[in-house]
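Please, structure for the following, as tokens.
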Amino acid sequence: MMSQKTTFCIFAAVLGILATASFLILENRPLNTPQYATGRYRVVLGNGGFNPQTMTVAAGEKIEFQNARTVPFWPASDIHPTHDVYPEFDPKKPIAAGESWIFHFDRPGVWRYHDHLAPSFRGVIVVRDPRGAVADPCAEDNRNTSECWGALIERVAARDGFHAAFRLFLSLSEKNPSFNIFCHDFAHRLGEAAYGTYRAKGALQIHPQMMYCGFGFYHGLVQRMTAESGRIEDVRKFCVYVENELRRHVLTPSKGCYHGAGHGLAEILVETEGIKNERALAQRALAACESIASDDYERNLCATGVFDSVAIMYYNGGKNGIAMNPEDPLALCLFQPASYKQACYDELMTAVLWAANNRVIDAIPVAERFTDKSHLPATLTALIAAGMRYRVELPAQETVAVCGRWSKGLSRDGCITGVVDGYMQFGGVGKEYKKAIAFCREPGLNDNDRRSCFTRTLHLVATQYGRERYDDICDEIPPEYRSLCASR
């Protein structure tokens, strides 16, 4: 029989073992368990993304979003960039490296979110109601609401492949005209996801549908590739590969891949080197564009991606301190080499439009005041094209009318070109040319207007469709203008 002292010693040892085990369990517990006595949970953003990527909590719980990267982040509800699915789930500003932001989730549901400053980083917060139930409004494939389109596209891509996801683009565009406003963004996100497939397999099957929505798919894929690999040679080889593949599908392959490369170059410089000045960022990124591109056209496209990234940083609240100067929002362009000035002015028009609450008529005076006179006509054309994102469903007659009164510096031909460019990017998936052709037929246009309009439309159609489809589209043009079509 053991003595009372011996029994006590054994009991104390057992308690010690249990305490040690409990400590090890707590030290190694997964991130989706409570981290604090207050009941908060923690999500950490590292270089590989949010961890855990999906977290489930009860309504009323707090979650700490911790930034373990060396650059700021901004966790916020979908949809990017408006965050209107769960507007309160948004800190309204960047969170510095090493800092945290805590949010109280009191609305049951499935809340998809992203890093507003690096939207390829994505996660999901599942909030259960008091009964432990979860209602996901986006669980069904037939939910036609803006907050569900992105989730549906990603689900179909993961389940059935990218080709099926792009077939879904056609259906969503036809049923919901407002889908076209977000189309480029959804295609961009799909391209980011496709990079993982390309990285794993070393190849990617190219489909003509991947050119939908202003080539957003290629922009997203190459941006992610450039930002993650950082290898200029890899990016150059992929852009050559895409161009060669596209030759099998379209009359005139677009080199939109290089635009995506410019995006990625700017992104990686901000992420890895913390550049806080847009002039320094542009100088470094444009130097890299020189290494990727083989001719002036490719270099210019790469530059458009660089300046587009700066514009995004402007209207995303000033990533890494890069914010629009209200005294001269286009000051960056003044310091660019002559060969890149127009690309700078063109791409910054999206930021000028954003600052004008997406009202073209209010953005035009800003463009007129701060753009070099020699670059103003082309810049105003770019502004009209960007503004068509929010006018694409308006009657064509109204668009024709405003072309004549918006700006003295905007030529009628330049306005018509901008309208066609806007229709071809935002006018509907697989049927964007129909709105452009309808615009070209408008009674308010004279013969010279129509020729300019149809010429621009056919040029863009040739970059998106093969010979057979191109010829069919050409047959929709009035007979007296079919001589503008490429030789059959």
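Confidence is low (pLDDT under 50) at residues 1-39. The first strand starts at residue 41 and ends at 46.
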